[in-house]
Amino acid sequence: MSRELVKDPLNIIICGVGGQGNILATELLASALVEKGYYATVGETYGASQRGGSVMSHVRISASTEYGVLIPLGQADIIVSFEPTDTLRVARDYANKSTLILTDSRPNYPLGVLIGEASYPSMDAIVAELEKLSGQVQVIEATNLAVEAGNSQAANILLMGALTALPSVPIDVADYNKVLEQRFSGKALELNLKVFKIGYEQIKQ
């Protein structure tokens, strides 16, 4: 194994709104971990995902045992989120002072905001609260970078690249690329490999 688990279990939450691809990203992550010899327990909770509701995946990684599928409140080690206010919602329940948070900067405005019945908080305000709730916050221009690479919907794989670059995550680029190659082919594979690398490079080694 290229990296050792710094904590067992290592608890990761991947969250976003319906349609952002976090279930696929979670499946690929779990596949890479299992192929590497780890136990990776996955649990999911859904809001009204068809209408842009919240979707949250729990990934619990262990070298020796299979843990319960849901991470206890306040015990997420890493939160990866595809939507800023969703990041905040999840962090309020699951973050602690050592949690590391990766979040996309691009809002996905709910209907109430779009029709003027509600307001959306500023990114500065979101980050300020996240910093109080956690140990480290890194904002990544995931959707914008994915658009530049060729497809906004590849932001999920881009964020998985950033996650894989974290020293505490016990897989490397080759491990994740292997599962991408098993799942995709042709232009889709080419794009996903490209955005994964871009995401990986967003994290300062």
Description:
The chain has 205 residues and is α/β, with parallel strands linked by helices. It has one domain (10-201): 3-Layer(aba) Sandwich (Pyruvate-ferredoxin Oxidoreductase, domain 3). 42% of the residues lie in helices and 19% in strands. It has eight helices and six strands; from the N terminus they run βαβββαβααβαααα. The protein has a six-stranded mixed β-sheet with strand order 2-3-1-4-5-6, sandwiched between helices. A hairpin with a 7-residue loop joins strand 2 (39-46) and strand 3 (54-62). The relative contact order is 0.17.
Outline:
Helices cover 42% and strands 19% of the residues. The protein is α/β, with parallel strands linked by helices and 205 residues long. The two termini are 19 Å apart.
